[in-house]
Amino acid sequence: MVEWLRGFYASSGARALADTMFGWSGKLLVALLILLVGWWFARRMSAGLQRMLLRGGADPLLGNFLRNLAFVLLLALVVVGALDRAGVPTASLLAALGAAGLAIGLALQGSLSNLAAGVLLMAFRPFRVGDSIEVGAISGVVQSVSLMQTFLLTGDNREVILPNAKVAGDVIVNVNARGTRRVDLAVGIGHDADVGRAIDLLREVAAADARVLAQPATEAAVVQLAESGVQLALRAWTRSGDYGGVQSDLLRTIKQRFDAEGVALARPSREVVLREVVPAEPR
């Protein structure tokens, strides 16, 4: 029996089978090693990318998303390399994966556009949580920004959920970006009123409000001679958070000071001319 086994192994067929099995085992061992080292490398690289983004001030949600995305992409490359080293044809696999990715992308086109817009919003930060913004005809305070949607809270306590693609593709007005805002008030006085005194009163009212900033300086001037009166403008700067209160208080105080000083506000006026119509004498 032993002599037969020796003779069988010594034959060319047995030697070829043994060489083939040894070759396959070697390839599988190398492929497994590539998978293990590649998995470790992808994990370390993706974690390093997240730490770098967080140190740079990126949003934690964006950092976590990019870490997972980098890990999946690197791991996919490692798997393809391991399969190729094991002798598995990868050309057809890559073609199938590409076709599947294209089909998924077309099916999720709207969602992917929102996802891409969310990544851009978190990366470039045109606004932050707590900012008061206007997007198209919608205004509110930013409550949170996710990868797919932006959540706003309106002044009347309604929550508005906007797709990120709409936010990124529309005009964004960030009210809090600069920290200060200019209060523009239009005040009309009668034609007979003292324009110089009215302008002085506007400046005094603005200077008396502690929320009005000294710089930039407050401006008060005549802007128009209208049919109903003389149009004045008051431009005063304040902090963004005080804008609404300053605007309301200045208007109320201006009305009180004008009444106390006898400065008449503009009123629409019409001149009516009555003419006596003499009837024609009969012929």
TrEMBL record:
Domain Mechanosensitive ion channel transmembrane helices 2/3 residues, every copy: 69-109
Name of the protein described by the UniProt record: Small-conductance mechanosensitive channel
Belongs to which family? Belongs to the MscS (TC 1.A.23) family.
Could you list this entry's UniProt keywords, alphabetically sorted: Cell inner membrane, Cell membrane, Ion channel, Ion transport, Membrane, Transmembrane, Transmembrane helix, Transport
The membrane spanning regions, by residue number, are 20-41, 61-83, 95-124
Q: How does it sit in the membrane?
A: Multi-pass membrane protein
Spell out the subcellular localization from the entry.
Cell inner membrane; Cell membrane
Main location as per UniProt: membrane
Question: What species does this protein belong to?
Answer: Dokdonella ginsengisoli
Every copy of the Mechanosensitive ion channel MscS domain together lies at: 111-176
Q: Which SUPFAM superfamilies match?
A: Mechanosensitive channel protein MscS (YggB), C-terminal domain, Mechanosensitive channel protein MscS (YggB), transmembrane region, Sm-like ribonucleoproteins
Instruction: State the Gene3D superfamilies in the record.
Output: 1.10.287.1260, 2.30.30.60, 3.30.70.100
* Quaternary structure and interacting proteins, as annotated: Homoheptamer.
Q: Which residues form the Mechanosensitive ion channel MscS C-terminal domain?
A: 184-264
Q: Which InterPro entries match?
A: LSM_dom_sf, MS_channel_1st, MS_channel_C, MSC_TM_helix, MscS_archaea/bacteria_type, MscS_beta-dom_sf, MscS_channel_2nd, MscS_channel_C_sf
